[in-house]
Amino acid sequence: MAANVSKCRVCREPAIIDLPRHNANFCAEHLLQLCRRQVDKAISDHAMLSPDDRILVAVSGGKDSLAVWDILLDLGYRADGLYIGLGIGDYSDDSGGYAQRFADERGLVLRTIDLRGEYGYDVPTAAKVTKRVPCSACGMSKRHLFDTAARDGGYDVVVTGHNLDDEAAVLFGNTLRWDIDYLARQMPVLPARDGFPRKVKPLVRLTEREMAAWCIVRGIDYQVEECPMAVGNKHLAYKDALNTIERESPGSKAAFYLNFVEKMAPVLAGHNRAAAGDLVACTRCGSPTLAPDSGEAPVCAFCRLHDKVIGHDPVPVELVLRGAARKAYLAARAAEGSER
Amino acid sequence: MQVRLRQPKREVTIDGARTVNQLLDELGMNRESFLVIRNGTLVPGDGRLDDTDAIEIRPVISGG
After folding, report:
1. Which of A160, A187, A212, A330 could cross-link to B60 by cystine, CB 3.0-4.6 Å?
2. Do B35 and A209 touch (CB under 8 A)?
3. A75-98: b or e for each residue (b if 16 or more CB lie within 10 Å)?
4. Contact A209 B32 (CB under 8 A)
5. Tens of pLDDT, residues A214-269
6. What's the pTM value of the predicted model, to 2 decimals?
7. What are A35-67's pLDDT values in tens digits?
8. Hey, of A209, A218, A238, A256, which one would you mutate to test binding to chain B, going by the most B CBs within 10 A of its CB?
């Protein structure tokens, strides 16, 4: 076997990864150093965390959430995890297994919520009943449950594994629509407010490729397969478009997002309608929610969704998927079957 | 070489040594969206892959 040609920029030992946006190659040790430093810088630049914070990490079993949990512990923070079983067939079962094994092997606290067991519905059923894209019901349910768990558990802050690619893709979509309200709230830190915990994204300076590399170097086993409900969604299309640009012009994603945060976000401050609106307690669950315009009793989005979907029989994943997503899901199931 | 692919999981055989970047280009895969792993270790873009290697091409993009 021929030896690798490239050398680590720091120590000149054989490199394991090339990072064109840094115009450099890195060995395992110095890749980890780079990742730690980028997370440390994000935390410091945006005052995300303090050493005494009780941190709750939103854990999916994928590379980003396990990596951010691992890095925070590595940097000396105290952090527990919360995994939500979303009921997306085998994908959810497998994802929960990755999260639990990561916690067990390190003696960490992983709290778990089973959406169907504890709330009587799952994401495929919610998507079918509401006739909306699955990611809508999924994201809304997760935000509510993470907020509630943090509040009830006495946590100061919720950490999510959103990385540079995630944030750049969301920014790209919001910019295509010039959605000023969403642009104004797309920051690495969402401050605590009236019952909502602080939410922070320590991975905003690191790409998905770097996070996957962190996990491989650190021996973290994670869910590699894509969520079947997400296949073919716009978010993935935006990421694909940005990576096409990134390949031709390394550093574009970081410049696009990080310069937005530095230069454009201050211009948009004050345009976030959600931050400006009055919050009141949901009459069902007590969670904070925007006060309704009319005089009706305030009910939060989670409770409204719950009202719609409760009592419906579970809907199998394949009945919710359409087109390319359905085809990909069935192909994956067939491949799994031939392996067993 | 034996190449393990994901989404969906499958294996293909590719003849002849080449670099990681050459392999990804031939398969139409963007280098920004994949990592190549050999024996549990990452291989950089100019790393040489031999005919006898067993490798995994792992996608790194997730849509959730």
Report:
1. A212
2. yes
3. eebebbbbbbbbbbbebbebbbeb
4. yes
5. 999 999 999 999 899 888 889 999 999 999 999 999 999 999 999 999 999 999 98
6. 0.94
7. 999 999 999 999 999 999 999 999 999 999 999
8. A209
